[in-house]
């Protein structure tokens, strides 16, 4: 769930920044990639915490 929320959030933020700065696909791609990275990092930390219990 974390991966999906952060990826969609990054894409949405990228779309918003593209509209503000008129840099059509650049920020959407960057936002999606950053969202994916942070999503997988969050998922990895959550999984690691669950394994400790």
Short précis:
The protein is mainly alpha-helical and 53 residues long. It is 89% helix and 0% strand.
Can you walk through the features of this model?
The mean pLDDT is 96. The protein starts with a helix and ends with a helix. The chain contains two helices and no strands. The chain is rod-shaped, with a radius of gyration of 14 Å. It has one domain (2-52). By secondary structure, the chain is mainly α.
Query: Rough shape?
Result: rod-shaped
- Rg calculated over all Cα atoms: 14 Å
Label the structural class: mainly alpha
Mean pLDDT: 96
User: N- to C-terminal separation?
Assistant: 21 Å
Uncertain segments are: none
Helix content: over 70%
Estimated share of beta-strand residues = under 5%
- Total helices: the number is 2
Number of domains: 1
H and E string? HH
Number of strands: 0
Largest sheet: none
């Amino acid at each position: 769930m974390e991966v999906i929320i952060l990826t969609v959030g990054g894409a949405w933020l990228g779309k918003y920044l593209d509209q503000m700065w008129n840099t059509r696909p650049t920020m959407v791609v960057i936002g999606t990639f950053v969202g994916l990275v942070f999503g997988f990092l969050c998922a990895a930390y959550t999984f690691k915490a669950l394994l400790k219990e």
